What we know:
The complex is a heterodimer. Chain A has 4 helices and 6 strands; from the N terminus they run βαβαββαβαβ. Chain A has helices at 15-27, 51-60, 101-113, 136-147, and strands spanning 2-10, 35-46, 70-74, 89-97, 119-130, 163-172. Chain A has one domain (2-172). The radius of gyration of chain A is 17 Å and the shape is globular. Chain A is an alpha+beta fold. By secondary structure, chain B is an alpha/beta fold. Chain B is 23% helix and 23% strand. Chain B contains 7 helices and 13 strands. In chain B, strand 6 and strand 7 (124-125) form a beta hairpin.
Amino acid sequence: MSETSILVGLKAPDPAAMTALSTLMRISPETAPLHLSRYDHWRFTGPGAVREFVSELVSHYTDIVNPNKQTWSFFEGETDPILTDPGMTWAAVLVTDRVDSISENWTGILGRRHRGVESVGYSVLWRLGFSRSVSLEDARDRTMTMAVTTHRDRGLLANPVSQLIELLGTSKT
Amino acid sequence: MSTLPLVAVIQFPGSNCEYETARVVREAGMNGLVFRWNQLSELRDADPDAFVLPGGFSFQDRVRAGAVAAKEMMMDIVFSAAAGKRPVLGICNGAQVLVESGLVPGWEAGRVEAALAANHIAGRSGYLSRWVFLHARETAVLKSPWLGKLGTSPIPVPIAHAEGRFVFWEEDLSRTLPVEALVYCDENGVERPEYPTNPNGSVHNLAAVMNTDGNVMAMMPHPERAFRLWQLPPWIPGEWGDRIRMSISAGTLADAPGPGALFFQGLADHFGGGRHE
């Protein structure tokens, strides 16, 4: 069984990330990140879900990656280059709907047409960059505080009543 | 200065139902004014008797529908007014803002205890635009200033949303009845958890949830789009379909009120025709 994940981002600055960052800076000025990026995260699982095949899928299905406005890359998880950019302390969270029709629909579409893919998982990955002086532990705490919406003035990136939140890891370079 | 009750209709960037909502407020005999999300001092000075957060979008629904608007300073004013028992209604995107604000269900005010998740029911997902039937819970009719004229008979109202599925934490599912305001049903008032009676998979067939005091209500259907009887399609079954046919025969369709008017007339009755003290 193979599993391959990709990240899909906009070529232009992402307006959702910009709005989220300005909102976090307003509601949590002491702990907000200096940088925030947003990516679509797709996870393909199945005996044929290897990199070469996923590359073919991505080039074929422009609903997953629209080459006119989006770029994509394979995602390596905690060791991915986007989480090890020099100069900052990084953390990332993966937000997934508990009941997710996007994943269900794509699992159905690709499962019917391509025997090698058994499931597709769609999530949103938020990458938060903090000052280098912020410790890894502090970055983790801040990230979860800003991701998990518990109150009107606490948390933004996910509503835990309907979404799963997974802290992917932190790095400092 | 008008002595009529003032209902503030809040316009966020991306709202698209604010003007028709203000208009139906006025047609129901109140003063309906649109305030932009950043007209904070104007809104405080106006000291509205009630608030409506209309449908459409807010901040392009970036991050999550209603999530960014819920954290705007404008919502501090709405939050204070709600705590002071003033009526607040959120319609569609406005409902999403109220849920993300923690104003409904409001077991602990300000704590986010519910979500309006993406539509998901067996065989259906994605955006929905159609007419549905709903009826009010008996307790809600007694508590909510918006539901006083509604009774518990089923009424047809349109929906248009992609994220309208009320969900709660598993441990809260057994205590939702006191905050259940409106539920999806068929034209005879029968509730079913399957599509099309429940169009989006909402738990307990919920179309609207209120706070524990009953003064704040978040509803996904659009009552302002059913304010006049002529706004209803002619094929609507049940009592309201009969009313359309009778109005056409009598030549009174142009002025006849639709089921959506009941929400706003109920609020006007609640105020008794004047402003708060």
